Amino acid sequence: MTRRLGDPRRLRAEAASPVTVVHAGSVPYLTAWDWQHDLARRRSADEIGDVLLLLEHPRVYTLGRRADETNLVFDAAERDRRGIDLHRIDRGGDVTYHGPGQLVGYPIWRLDGPRVVDHVRALEAINIAVAASFGIDAQRIEGLSGVWVGGAKLTAVGVHVTAKAVTTHGWATNVTTDLDDFTGIVPCGIADRPVTSLERLGVHTDLAEVERRTADAVGEILGAGVDLRHAEDLGLLAPY
Known about the structure:
Blueprint: E1 19-26, H1 29-44, E2 51-56, E3 60-63, H2 76-82, E4 85-88, E5 95-98, E6 102-108, H3 116-133, E7 139-141, E8 144-149, E9 152-161, E10 167-174, H4 207-222, E11 226-230
Parallel strand pairs: 1-2, 1-11, 3-4
Antiparallel strand pairs: 2-6, 3-5, 6-10, 7-8, 8-9, 9-10
Helix pairs in contact: 3-4
């Protein structure tokens, strides 16, 4: 069943202002987490407008605030053997995976009130639109977050909202992701739902093209202009 979605253009405190979309490339998870904290602080202080980070991570599992560690299937030795890091973080949701071939989006937006559920619905709408642009009929599933195709999860969604109504974390869409890495967890704590990717669904594309279509979908769904930038333009530097 499809959930109702309010007007996404009303979600952001400055709905008419453009969203700065940053193409950041491959970024270590903890570096991107630091970037989110920095951008959220600056957004709260009105030093910057709304920002969307689009990037890719090396292999990593992350545990949300209420994650059940029994949903980790691979032990520490197996994770080390496969080169998969593990971090507990401050987003909602259970355990998820990030890795090469997966497009991750981190919206640093100030919400127009505590509309967290509508924010999640807007992120789903953006990724449903991206899937549709490739001819994929993606949907929501009642009672579950994320974007689904035939009962398999294409996009995972997990967010955090600060005390000043600024969002962090966001979504992860599998493009050419090695889905075998998901066997090391129970994704989002849901044992009876598989994961999928655009590649598995027969779409031949790459992250750069999905990034471009994502930026277009952000502008369309939010009714906002999009200002494309690089990480360095916002003073975001990687420690490597």
